[in-house]
Design brief:
Nuclear Transport Factor 2, Chain: A, SnoaL-like, Nuclear transport factor 2 family protein, 6-stranded mixed sheet, 3 helices, NTF2-like_dom_sf, alpha+beta, about 190 residues
Length: about 190
């Protein structure tokens, strides 16, 4: 591969670049899963998995479609909002298979206004089929869990705080709005 200055990348640099591209591709897949679950975007969620993937998560063992339905029902019944946050990410790839370990924290605002937090790791096998890297096997290892005290959401009482859009669990969420614009008036809070 030729660089913009006309020199060639070394073999080591090319290998590193390919590894970086693969790592980013796999991480993007993880992000589709988390955003798909938090926004109840079924198509986005399912795009992270091969359709015949097998997923083990707590009491659940089944397919991506079954996981989406089960988890969506669980979250709709118990929570007002969820955030699946990705942390450390390790990749071991060979050919058309890659194994990853992704640390996560899960945070939820429960319907009773308590806050639930949990942490663990997604242990995944990705496979490349027809050029598409997706999860083919997942083990969700839940390592800890607890409840946090409930506090009011800061600034929730401002009359225009939601004028730009609301946090929603569907495609009406502000993150889907295009183009993103500001509808709030200019204001700088004083002490």
């Amino acid at each position: 591969m030729q660089q913009s200055n006309g020199s060639q990348l070394s073999e080591q640099e090319l290998v590193g670049l390919k590894a970086l591209v693969l790592r980013n591709t796999l991480y993007d897949c993880q992000l589709r899963f988390t955003r798909g679950m938090d926004r109840f975007d079924e198509d986005l969620f399912l795009s992270a998995f091969h359709s015949d993937a097998v997923i083990s998560a707590g009491p659940f063992v089944g397919s991506p479609q079954e996981l989406y339905s089960w988890a969506k029902d669980l979250h709709e019944q118990g929570q007002k909002a969820t955030q699946h946050c990705l942390l450390n990410f390790n990749v071991d790839a060979q050919g058309d298979a890659a194994h990853t370990e992704t640390y996560y924290q899960f945070v939820a605002r429960n319907k009773d206004d308590s806050n639930w937090i949990a942490g663990g790791r997604y242990i995944d096998k990705f496979t490349r089929i027809d050029g598409q890297w997706r999860i083919s096997t997942r083990q969700n290892i839940i390592e800890w869990s607890g409840l946090l005290p409930s506090l009011d959401i800061p600034f929730g009482d401002l009359p225009d705080v939601n004028d730009n859009g609301l946090a929603m669990r569907d495609k009406t969420d502000i993150s889907y709005l295009r183009p993103l614009i500001n509808r709030r008036q200019h204001q700088i809070p004083s002490d």
